[in-house]
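Quick one:
INPUT:
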């Protein structure tokens, strides 16, 4: 059996990192972890070929070679998924579709007439598909209400990836989240009780990547890496010696809840294991909005204090915010901008709320008749809202645009980055030297391939051109570069990486302007569409 595994392309978004990828000579930020996990569940006798359409296209030779086509994707990849299903059917291929989108909205995927649809997590559902194929069945829908034991999850087929295409690799240690925020669909997809791989499993996956030659960042894709702190601690205790024995070949980042800021011991373990960054859903600086959305973990301790503790103890933060929640007061965009400036967090993901299928918010708004007839494709960069908000939509979209413009004005972004990394404690090694500690035997650092070192030099020269020569804020760049070198030199590289990441966001402002302008044009002065006006589906019709 020749099986073609296809990952649809994704539209431009916060996570595209297009300029960073080009800067480093890569084509995409992160690979399709779900597909390579499914690949590991397929029979060893099958011939597999994976194509990520964010990196390359499907050729006629690929189509001719394949007996079966397996397609997976998230909601933002919906249009790409549908196009691939139609193309595969036109070419007479057996089509299997699955993944988060097909799990949440199977009727949408089934309308494209794939032969098989797989709902839920592959460890439970792929065996059902294989059994049906062995029995000669030519179609069906397979699902399982039970959540699989992650200790039985196989090591993903990282060998199917063309590693140079990617800036960051992906590893998953758990699924599920103990929190149940109203707007989030994770509990619906993966459950509220987190399930875990063993620390030895994680070490085995890292060893696989190490042997394949990977020497860059790895993203732990867990919905909340510290959802169970006992487990997280055990995993970190396993990673620390593994990393040191191999010369710290990777840098890690993950998603975590803000209560990490109240656990300096956990932060210390993470930094010792070479974690550099955490992605945190702050969502709103307004406590009443957080409470309405059941984001209780963000109001148990002062947000600014928690975020400052994370920074002070050596971890960078990427923060997520959302505009458009129920009960939100006018000026939410301005309050978010003020909060970001006060926290000095440079890199911020700003979203206009899109209600996700089968989240608790989706169910509530559906009952209230507030879901729009043409609902989201998951594109949140300046798109129309897919629900009736409690204040005028035009007001929300204008605040969203102004906040984007404010946060990613280049000189303002660079100033935040400078303040942020100035205030971060030096690295462990720099602190030891500063405190006059006796020299210790350091692990031999993993060798960086010559090609990668050459790319680093070229990337630095490009950054100099982008921010130190070409723009009007070039004097600020040089002044801050000198200041970082003098005051906190051990954080200079992370600071420069942050500067480079800004180059992804500055051009996105133009996309936001265009999309918001289109959204506002659709909103006539008489249809400022909030709760009392506009046409809405009583059942969230699609």
């Amino acid at each position: 059996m020749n099986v073609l595994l296809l990952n649809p392309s994704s539209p431009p978004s916060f996570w595209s990192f297009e300029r960073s990828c080009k800067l480093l000579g890569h084509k995409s930020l992160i690979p399709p972890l779900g597909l390579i996990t499914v690949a590991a569940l397929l029979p060893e006798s099958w011939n597999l070929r994976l194509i990520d359409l964010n990196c390359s296209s499907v050729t006629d030779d690929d189509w001719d070679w394949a007996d079966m086509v397996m397609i997976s994707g998230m909601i933002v990849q919906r249009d790409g998924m549908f196009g691939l299903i139609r193309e595969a059917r036109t070419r007479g291929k057996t089509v299997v579709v699955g993944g988060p989108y097909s799990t949440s909205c199977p009727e949408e995927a089934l309308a494209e007439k794939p032969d098989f649809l797989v709902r839920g997590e592959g460890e439970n559902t792929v065996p059902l598909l294989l059994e049906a194929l062995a029995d000669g069945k030519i179609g069906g829908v397979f699902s399982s209400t039970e959540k699989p034991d992650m200790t039985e999850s196989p090591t993903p087929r990282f060998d199917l990836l063309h590693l140079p295409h990617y800036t960051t690799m992906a590893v998953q240690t758990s699924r599920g989240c103990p929190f149940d925020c109203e707007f989030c669909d994770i509990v619906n997809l993966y459950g509220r009780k987190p399930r875990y791989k063993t620390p030895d499993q994680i070490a085995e996956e890292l060893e696989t990547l190490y042997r394949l030659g990977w020497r860059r960042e790895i993203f732990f894709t867990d919905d909340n890496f510290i959802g169970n702190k006992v487990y997280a601690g055990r995993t970190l205790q396993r990673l620390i010696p593994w990393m040191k024995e191999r010369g710290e070949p990777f840098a890690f980042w993950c998603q975590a809840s803000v209560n990490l800021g109240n656990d300096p011991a956990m932060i210390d373990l993470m930094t010792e294991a070479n974690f550099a960054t955490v992605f945190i859903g702050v969502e709103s600086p307004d406590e009443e909005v957080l409470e309405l959305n059941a984001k209780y973990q963000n109001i148990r301790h002062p947000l600014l204090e928690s975020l400052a503790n994370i920074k002070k103890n050596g971890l960078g933060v990427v923060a997520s915010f959302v505009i458009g929640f129920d009960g939100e007061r006018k000026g939410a965009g301005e309050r978010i901008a003020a909060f970001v400036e006060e926290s000095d967090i440079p890199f911020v993901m700003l979203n206009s709320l899109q209600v996700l299928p089968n989240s608790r918010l989706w169910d509530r708004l559906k009952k209230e008749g507030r879901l729009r007839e043409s609902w989201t494709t998951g594109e949140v960069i300046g798109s129309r809202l897919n629900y009736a908000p409690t204040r005028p939509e035009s007001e929300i979209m204008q605040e969203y645009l102004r906040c984007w413009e404010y946060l990613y004005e280049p000189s303002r972004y660079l100033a935040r980055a400078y303040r942020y990394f100035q205030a971060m404690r030096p690295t462990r090694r720099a602190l030891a030297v500063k405190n006059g500690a006796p020299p210790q035997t350091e692990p031999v650092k993993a060798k960086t391939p010559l090609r990668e070192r050459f790319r680093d030099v070229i990337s630095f020269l490009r950054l100099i051109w982008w921010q130190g020569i070409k723009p009007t804020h070039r004097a600020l760049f040089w002044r801050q570069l000198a200041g970082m070198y003098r005051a906190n030199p051990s954080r200079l590289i992370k600071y420069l990486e942050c500067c480079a990441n800004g180059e992804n966001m500055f051009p996105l402002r133009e996309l936001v302007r265009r999309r918001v302008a289109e959204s506002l044009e659709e909103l006539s002065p008489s249809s400022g569409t909030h709760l009392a006006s506009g046409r809405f589906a009583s059942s969230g019709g699609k």
